[in-house]
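Backbone description:
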Amino acid sequence: MEYLSASEIAQQVREGKLTSVDITSLYLERIKEHNEKLQAYVFHQPEQALAGAKHCDQSGETEEKGLLHGVPVSIKECYLWEGTPTTLNYPPKRNYRAKETSILVKRLLEQGAVILGKTNVPTLLSDSQTFGPLYPTANNPFDLTRTPGGSTGGGAAAVAAGLTTFELGSDIGGSIRNPSHYCGLFGFKPTQNGYASDGHVPPYPEDNIGISIMNHTGPLARTMNDIQLANDVLYKPDLQRLHYLDTKGRNVNLQGMKVAYFDSLYGLQAGSDVRNAIHRMVNTIEKLGGEAVPIHIDKFLSERMLKTWTKLLGVMMGQGLPWLVRKMFYLKFSPSLKASSLPARKELKQGLSLSFQHFSQAMAEREELIQEVNRLFEPYDFVLSPTSMGPAFEHNHKHRSILLDGEAIPYLDYCFPFVAFYNLTGHPVLTVPTGLNKQGLPIGLSISAPHHQDQELIHFGKTLESNGYTFTAPKL
């Protein structure tokens, strides 16, 4: 029962086969039983959730019911929900309570969702793990000694452990895709759609400043039907602001499809588990009548992309922060950048300086790079690639090197290049589970599509799911 999909729950509630109170109670019991070891949730109100579920069950037959009527879901701590904490695991905001509600959270509520609570995040959402001074370290349900990823780490753990149906996450550097990969989930990063007034923090609304660059909001789920359902609810067009505009697509028949794939970037080759998963998916695509073509990303192009992403990340993370905090942020990641093969220390410092000249230069460079990548990808319907270098790694708060196939890989090299690539370009990307490795850890691959072909990518994900690429539950 705990692994019923949101789509199945919605249907059973509509048909009177299941009550929202019953399924919400089940999830609340599982949170009570498992959250202490997972630290997936950092805020939940059982009484309020049950009251919402009861309200759904008592609605009249003639009342219009939303797509998520009675369905329990979770949201990342960084989303504004009036009266609830949105601290970003950042001590200066430890007492912050939202004074308004995100447009995306409103859309969940308007469609009848029962929000179970808010899930764990790293400090300022700026890590590929989930830990910090305010909240306990989040653990991976497949192996508690390992991370569920970041920054939607708590949400990924909750979805994988059956503590919610799906999660509203966000992604500026792999924060949907890496946790999905590490926890065996589907994770969807739509064509870039986040903007500064959609209720995602940063920036805090009271600061009266803010830009949103490279930030993508999207769902993590156990099934592609739930990715579709969440996407349908969350991204109805906002015509007043010209955001969340309609994306068109078609049902995908792989017969005749051309899919490109690559397994290395900037001289960094993914580990054997990831390469084996790519080989398996290539075979699946070819058996279904598609053509899979290996491609190479020029090292100079990838270097420019990673440098530009780092500079814009510095701008995004630095806005609204005092100079001293920005300096501390740089010092926190400077050793990791020094150890990394990625030459981007100067770019991070430039981004955190909040210099308009550096920002505008980076935005111009980004436009050029997007055009170059689009030309490279133009002959293909989809592009298959790694998410991170390997499976979920052991907790690593000091950002030390990670052992992969007997080789020590610098922390940033392991976590970020393959995902940062697509934050810079803004393409829609779907992470798909491919099963467990010999150690029982999930491996997920990422598939991109041309801009605004979100629906086509979702259809492709459904095709892969129907051919064996499915969620595997952990043994809790």
Remarks:
- The mean pLDDT is 95.
